[in-house]
Amino acid sequence: MRLEEEIKQGKGFQSQRHKAVVNIMFTDGWVRGLLTEVLKPYGLTNQQYNVLRILRGSSPEPLSTSSIRERMLDKMSDASRIVDRLYKKRLVDRKTCKADKRLVDIFITKEGLNTLEKIDSAMNSFHLNLDAITEEEAETLNSLLDKLRG
């Protein structure tokens, strides 16, 4: 469905660039909503899922909370609080850093990896929503978004 119909905008946009910005914001909310539905059965938020993915990507090497924060998609998230909640769910583990006793190393647990595997399977149905565009179109979209961010 066209953006104008989705947001019930009767008047046109100032420009195609202005429309593109609104379209990106609208699509961001749409994707986040779909992701929230996929994660709901696992009791995870989008930010918690992001932290688990970051830790899986660094595994078996641990990351500090500040390293996690730097890699997060949502820079306004409180990485320490998110790690605490994941720790309570036994999806991550914490150990004092051997090199610097003031730091804490964060590891993804086997249970965290297993949860991500289940989510990966569930994400296949989530990704089916992207079947409306080809791989080539997705590549073009990625290039344009990268270009937009400079």
Describe the protein's architecture and organization.
- There is one protein chain.
- 61% of the residues lie in helices and 7% in strands.
- By secondary structure, the chain is mainly alpha-helical.
- The chain has a single domain (14-133), classed as Winged helix-like DNA-binding domain superfamily/Winged helix DNA-binding domain (Arc Repressor Mutant, subunit A), CATH 1.10.10.10.
- A two-stranded antiparallel ribbon has the order 1-2.
- Helix 2 (16-39) packs across helix 6 (110-127) and helix 3 packs across helix 5.
- The radius of gyration is 19 Å and the shape is elongated.
- The two termini are 29 Å apart.
- The mean pLDDT is 89.
Outline the fold blueprint.
Elements: H1 3-6, H2 16-39, H3 46-58, H4 65-71, H5 79-88, E1 92-96, E2 104-108, H6 110-127, H7 135-149
Antiparallel strand pairs: 1-2
Short description:
By secondary structure, the chain is mainly alpha-helical.
Q: Report the span from N to C terminus.
A: 29 Å
Sequence stretches where pLDDT stays below 50 over 5 or more residues? none
Please name the fourth-level CATH homologous superfamily.
Winged helix-like DNA-binding domain superfamily/Winged helix DNA-binding domain
- CATH architecture identity: Orthogonal Bundle
CATH class: Mainly Alpha
Oligomer: single chain
Query: What structural class is derived from the secondary structure elements?
Result: mainly alpha
Q: What is the number of strand segments?
A: 2
> Helical segment tally?
7
